[in-house]
Amino acid sequence: MSSPARRARLVHKEVNKRVESLFKDPAVAKNVSCRQGCSACCHTQVSISDDEAQLLKKLIDNGHEIDIEKLKRQSKASKNSSTWYRLSYEERACIFLDENKSCSIYEHRPSVCRTNYVVGDPSDCSTEDGLEKSVRLLNTHEADMALMAGFSQCEENGAMPDLLYSLLEGNRDVLDLMSPQKNLGPVFKEF
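Above: the chain sequence. Below: its structure as tokens.
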């Protein structure tokens, strides 16, 4: 049996393949407004599988630095969307966003992050006011089916802060490494 991280990477590969085929259509490439540096959707709740949680934990175990206290606060608020959106916009920012508002784990980002592409103005995605708006998303049915197949093989799926913090909470060594006194910097290793 393969490892959870390996299964997550396999699902990511299948999702990517299906999304990439959509972007071969010039109309899609022209009308999708998502670009590097736009991080509006990175302030919303993200669902992950427990395989993806294991992959993210592995990145952290290998030295990828995160704000563990922020993750803990997000975990407490991730039980429902009304609690989540009571957090400030900055407090809701994904723990993997870097200082340039770019994903620091882009190659290992969750499946949901790989399938959400907005057709329209990127300002439509903003939740700075604490409200989620209805946006037009690119139809990614085939990629969504690959995502759901991956989710169906896992025992648990849920909000990223909740699943990831639960995993890390059981590993005190990792939590100790994430203390502000340690400066490990990001480490990217191929698993």
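The two ends are 16 Å apart (CA to CA).
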